[in-house]
Every structure is written in C-alpha cells, then in structure tokens.
C-alpha cells in the first residue's frame, strides 16, 4: 500500500475525544482510551447507517416544520398563525430585510443545505463515486459548523412568548410547527455528529488504490 | 515499528493521517497537512486563562439568569423576559420538548460548560483529581456543541427588532450581563486547550511521587 501512512494500517487509532494515539488490541475494533476513558473505534460504528437514518428523518420532518404554523402573533384581537416562510415574508414586507435575511438563512437555508450536503457526502461514499477529498472535507466542516444557528427561530419564539403576553391586547403563542422544527435541528446536528469524516479518505484511498492496481496490472500484463 | 507510540506521534482525527513529531509551537496551531483540520491550538497560558475566564463566566451567569433581559410594553401593559420565563411559558403551553431543548441549549449546557472548565482548570493541579478531571474533559467534549449562547443572543436581537414597531422595547441590565457572558463563553472555548491538561498530568506522572504532593494551582 503506497500513499500517506494511515493510522489504521499500523493498528493505531486517534481518540476522537483527547486525540491520544491508541493501539487497538489485536482483532478488535474498539477499546477504551487509556487517557480520557472515552470509547475509541477504528471507525465510528454504523456511521453511514446512523447518518442516513437521521438525514431521512430530518428530511421528512422538514415538511410539517414548514407547513404547520410556528407562531401566532395576536395584536388587538387580530392575527393569524404564521409559518417559517410567511414569518420571513412578513419581515421582508415591513422593510426589515436585514433581519429577514438572517432568519431566512438560519431557518430555511441552513437546514436544507445541511441535509443536501450530508446526502451528497453519503452518496459519494456509499456508491464509491469519484470525490475530491478536500472539497468533501470543506463541505463536512461547513455542515457541522452551521447547524446550531438554526435554533435561532426557536429561541426567538421562546423570548417572544414570555415578552408579549398581555392577554387581549397582544399575545404571542407558539405553534405545533415549532416542535417539528426543533426536532429537525436536533436530528440534523446528530447526523453531522455521527458522520465519520475518515470515511471520506477511506473511500478516496480505496478508489485510488484500485485504479493504481488496475494500471499496474495493465502495465505488467 | 512495534514499539508503544510516543507522545510525539499522533493521527489526524479527521483523515487518519499518521504524523510524526507533530507539536505546535507556543501560540500557534497545528494543521493537518493532508486535510487542513486543526489538530492542536497551542495557546499561551491556556489553563490560567481558562481558569480565570470560566470563573468570570460563572459569576456573570448569576445576574444574567436572574435579571430581566428585555422589557416590552404596549400602552401601560408591560412584560419582562428572563432566561427562564420563556421556557416556563412554553412549558405551560404544553411544548415540553421545545421548552426543554431551549432550556438545555441556553441555560444548562453553558452552565455545565463553565462548571466543567472551572473544575478542569482548577482541579488539574491535584493528582487525586486526575480521574475526575479526565472524565470532565470528556463530558466537556460532548457538551461543547450544545451551548448556544451566541445563537440565543442573535435570537434576542431579532426579537428586539421584530417587535419594536408593535410596542416599546427596552433593554434591561440583564442583557448586558448576558452579552458579556456570551463573549466570555466564546473566549473560554478559544483559550481552553485539553492538551495542556494532558501534558500537565503526564509531567506529574513522570516526576517521582516523593516530590511535591500538593498541586500549585493553575
């Protein structure tokens, strides 16, 4: 095997928690890190399956999260439930396009981008498609960094529910869509967490190794 | 080849590349040559800064959790918002899952983060605490992603702007404490370097036990 030295080939694994290099017991795939006590796996167990499961759950939950109302603002007895999209539209119509953009990015663009990004990574690895590892790593890092910002809308709802609570004059109530949306955020964060980026490099090396082997065989034969 | 890996050998946690003699110079960070992952950020005085900052964060937590953050009024009717009463009203309205998520991400996780870091940075001077400190580092690693003070801050700002045409919005002192706590929280995350803790433990283990028994603090 040529190419850069990989820890797995020398029976070593980096502990994901404290980055200690751990020697795997012969023939085993996991052990305890002697330094911090975390479980160390050569590769995260069932990484692809779990990520697929969370991504699919998230994609399904995105439907109720966007169809059902997340919040109702009642002002002087009038007001109707608003969904995530109509909330953004309302902000835009009142001329607050900066805030509208922030909310749009946080609660519509980010969850969709996360799901699309993870599906891209999963498909590339699962079906051994050609991939550019550095690009894939960039995508993985963006996907795992942006996820938390989706909770913006839910924090805002929890603030407004307490703040605007004046009975008949003005009131803000949460809607069932917010529960679905909260679950989408948690599920996509878990999906990004369970995805093991080392699989990207395994797929890349396997592909390159196979191509190299074929070329070698052609040259020899 | 078969010898036990020394402390200078490490593998990139994102691409599994084996690295020899990889140590970041003080004040700089070590980047994986293959995948550009940040392997180690070696800040100066990491443990001291973390000790000071996490205590500051814990102290700031008290006013930001008890004082109101915002005050909103229409005509003579007004209401205040603290870190807890939003969660309370959501819980009262039956949104149990949503309210516990908000509570966890905006109160429990940041509080846990500060407590763990304070424990780690003050406790790593004592040999008797090695095992609990190692566990604390592990818990911190899992908790880190769920503390979302900065997102909550942005949520406050969005709420502030969104409701300002409906009534009168006043910023209360709690919000300043909260903003300071958010800043301190981000600084703490940046300054904390678990490798400094591991290195300190390793140094103590190598030293003969008859040396100094008590820790010298952070």
From TrEMBL, chain A:
Keyword Manganese attributed: no
GO CC, alphabetical: plasma membrane
A Pfam family it matches: PqiA
The keyword Transmembrane helix appears for this protein: yes
Record keywords, A-Z: Cell inner membrane, Cell membrane, Membrane, Transmembrane, Transmembrane helix
Localization per record: Cell inner membrane
Transmembrane regions listed in the UniProt entry: 49-76, 96-123, 151-174, 180-201
Coarse class of the protein's main subcellular location: membrane
InterPro entries, A to Z: PqiA-like, PqiA-PqiB_transport
Name of the protein this chain belongs to: Paraquat-inducible protein A
Source species: Microbulbifer rhizosphaerae
Lineage per the UniProt record: Bacteria, Pseudomonadati, Pseudomonadota, Gammaproteobacteria, Cellvibrionales
UniProtKB/TrEMBL annotation, chain B:
InterPro entries: PqiA-like
The UniProt record lists the keyword Membrane: yes
Keywords (A to Z) from UniProt: Membrane, Transmembrane, Transmembrane helix
Transmembrane segments: 51-75, 95-122
Top-rank taxon, per record: Bacteria
Name listed for the protein in its UniProt record: Paraquat-inducible protein A
